[in-house]
Structures are given as structure tokens and as C-alpha cells.
Design the sequence.
């Protein structure tokens, strides 16, 4: 069409699609174009504002590396990552939460009871729980990809002082569906603010803080994989997570215990604990995979 106007540009755009275009692609692109064009018209978007938007995307690409994905971070702080999680979560099972931009693939496999704290300062935490199905039956052989920040609030991919897989591990549940290990208590931290996401947060008067948490990716044959996080009930940012990741069923408690109550066996730290420590007991439930 040679006479494109602001009233018909959306229809013209859609008319350019080929007849054999994938129907789902047509559905998504139709909605995207409709909302995007409506957004520009509703806000009377200026050339300068349009250029700012393009610059955000350009800079996000420039700052993204294999260790840091600014596009994921942008999706997180806009609430899109959490919204997609919630749209696609099954009705039963533990809630999913955001993956975040700092996950490292292929963490080292460790035996149950391994210690992730190692030489780092901070409070020792014993983490334990069960992986079950939605009928509360334990799932043996489930894998748990676990990761977290160091006590300085940085993931290993952000911190040259840490080993690549510091505070990363892959555990496998035993015949009772149990998992357990020790680590250091995570701290609340800020998302990176040295890129376009930080500029956006500053411009809108938003803080960059996340409540402290442990990350999980749980997989088991016949079940839907679960990507989630768990958060302590006493964290000051629990009700204002900048990436909208907190859910009611993902909140846990740290229970303070004296050194004398640390298990005598089964842990790398057994027989080595001389100070108070905390216990986190958190069970997670997987929903069946409809495709299995």
C-alpha cells in the first residue's frame, strides 16, 4: 500500500505477512504490533524519546556478555520475567521465580552434605528439604542446581576474586527425595546499575535492591523443571524486590541453633562447627510434565 497513515499502519504491517507464516507467530506479532503502535500513538512518542528507547537496547547489547545478560535484567526489572513465569506456571507445585542474569551452566556435581561456604566469612547455614510430587511423594534422583551470592553480595561471575563455580553446585536427591548441604547465609544485594537498566531505575526513582535468596533449578524425569528462589521472612526487601520475584510459598525461615546441635555425621562440616549456625528447611514440589 502506498498510502500508509497512523490509522492504518498496523493493518498494513500485518498484511505483509506471507500466507504460510506460522499461526502462532502471526498471533504474537499481531498483538505486538497492535500494542506497540497503540503505545506510540497514545503517548504521542517523540523522536527524542524513540531514540532513547533505541539507545537503551543498543547499550544493553554492548554491555551483555556470556556472564552478564543486560536484556534479561531489563526484562526482570520491567516485571516481564516474573509475568511470563506466572503465566506459564502450573496450578500445582512450588511457584517458579526469575532465573536472573547470573546463572552459570554445568555446575560441579557434589555429594549431599557438601559445604559451599568454604573459607568465606559469614554465618554458616544448613539447608535441607525434600523434593516431592504434588501428592507429597518423594522424588528420588532429582537434580538441584543451586547458586547464590557470596557474602559481599556478588555472584562469582561478577567477582574476579571468586572461583568460577564459587557457591554453585549440583546435588541429586537420595531415595527419600532429600537434599542437604551447608553454605553461608546469603545477603540482600543490588542488581547492576552501571548500564541502561541502572539509568532506568534512577530515572524512575526506583531502588535496585533484591532480598537475599537461594536459587534453585530442579529437574526430574517425568516432571516439569522448576526455576525458583527462596527468601527469608526477615529480609528488609521482601516486600519490594526490584525484580518482582517473591511469592508467598517461597518464603522460609532461618532457625538459629547452637554448635552442639550440628549433625555428627553426613556433612563435610560435621565435627568442625564451633559457633552458632542457622537451619533452613524447605521442601519443593514438582508438577507432572504433560509431555512425558
Sequence:
Amino acid at each position: 500500500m502506498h498510502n500508509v497513515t497512523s490509522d492504518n499502519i498496523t493493518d498494513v504491517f500485518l498484511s505483509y505477512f506471507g500466507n504460510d507464516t506460522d499461526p502462532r507467530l502471526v498471533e504474537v506479532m499481531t498483538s505486538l504490533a497492535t500494542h506497540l503502535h497503540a503505545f506510540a500513538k497514545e503517548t504521542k512518542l517523540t523522536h527524542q524519546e524513540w531514540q532513547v528507547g533505541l539507545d537503551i537496547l543498543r547499550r544493553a547489547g554492548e554491555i551483555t556478555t556470556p556472564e552478564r545478560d543486560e536484556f534479561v535484567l531489563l526484562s526482570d526489572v520491567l516485571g516481564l520475567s516474573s509475568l511470563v513465569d506466572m503465566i506459564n506456571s502450573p496450578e500445582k507445585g512450588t511457584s517458579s521465580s526469575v532465573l536472573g542474569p547470573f546463572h552459570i551452566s554445568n555446575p560441579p556435581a557434589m555429594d549431599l552434605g557438601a559445604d559451599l561456604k568454604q573459607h568465606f566469612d559469614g554465618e554458616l547455614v544448613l539447608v535441607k528439604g525434600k523434593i516431592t510430587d504434588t501428592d507429597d511423594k518423594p522424588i528420588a534422583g532429582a537434580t538441584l542446581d543451586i547458586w547464590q551470592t557470596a557474602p559481599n553480595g556478588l555472584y562469582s561471575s561478577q567477582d574476579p576474586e571468586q572461583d568460577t563455580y564459587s557457591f554453585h553446585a549440583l546435588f541429586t536427591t537420595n531415595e527419600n527425595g532429600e537434599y542437604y548441604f551447608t553454605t553461608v547465609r546469603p545477603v540482600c544485594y543490588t542488581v547492576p546499575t552501571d548500564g541502561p537498566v541502572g539509568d532506568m531505575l534512577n530515572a524512575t526513582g526506583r531502588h535496585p535492591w533484591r532480598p537475599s535468596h537461594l536459587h534453585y533449578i530442579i529437574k526430574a524425569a517425568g516432571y516439569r523443571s522448576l526455576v525458583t528462589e527462596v527468601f527469608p521472612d526477615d529480609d528488609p526487601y521482601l516486600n519490594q524486590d526490584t525484580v518482582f520475584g517473591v511469592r508467598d510459598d517461597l518464603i522460609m525461615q532461618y532457625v538459629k541453633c547452637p554448635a552442639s546441635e550440628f549433625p555428627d555425621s553426613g556433612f563435610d562440616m560435621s565435627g568442625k562447627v564451633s559457633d552458632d549456625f542457622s537451619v533452613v528447611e524447605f521442601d519443593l514440589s514438582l508438577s507432572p510434565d504433560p509431555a512425558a
Observations:
- Helices lie at 9-15, 23-43, 47-63, 70-77, 80-88, 196-203.
